[in-house]
Amino acid sequence: MLNDNLIVGATMAFGGLAPAIAIGFIVSKALEAIGRNPEAASKVQTVMILGVAFAEAIAIYSLVVALILKFV
């Protein structure tokens, strides 16, 4: 049977990888949009920050699942 710490580590690794990729993609596309239309920078920035917050929430859910696996 796998070690519990290994399972918790894998949960955090895979749970943190997807949000990191998503955040990079969101910021990349937002900067691309701002480069094309600098006048809409404030609107794009607001939506980008909201998207990054939602993507980061997924990583926090992963942390909660890892803590539940570790201590329950």
What does this structure look like?
This protein has 72 residues and is mainly alpha-helical. It contains 2 helices and no strands. It has one domain (4-71): F1F0 ATP synthase subunit C (F1FO ATP Synthase), CATH 1.20.20. The chain has helices at residues 4-36, 41-71. The mean pLDDT is 92.
Throw out a few tags for this protein.
2 helices, 72 residues, elongated, F1FO ATP Synthase, 89% helix, mainly alpha
List the helices and strands and how they pair.
Blueprint: H1 4-36, H2 41-71
Helix pairs in contact: 1-2
Summary of the model, kept short:
This protein has about 70 residues and is mostly helical.
What is the number of helical segments per DSSP (H or I, 4+ residues)?
2
- At the first level of CATH, what is the class? Mainly Alpha
Q: Helical amount among residues, as a percent range?
A: over 70%
The chain-level structural class is mainly alpha
Q: Quickly give the CATH architecture.
A: Up-down Bundle
| CATH homologous superfamily placement | F1F0 ATP synthase subunit C
Low-pLDDT parts are: none
Number of strands: 0
Rg from alpha-carbon coordinates = 17 Å
CATH level 3 topology: F1FO ATP Synthase
Percentage of residues in DSSP E strands: under 5%
- 3D shape: elongated
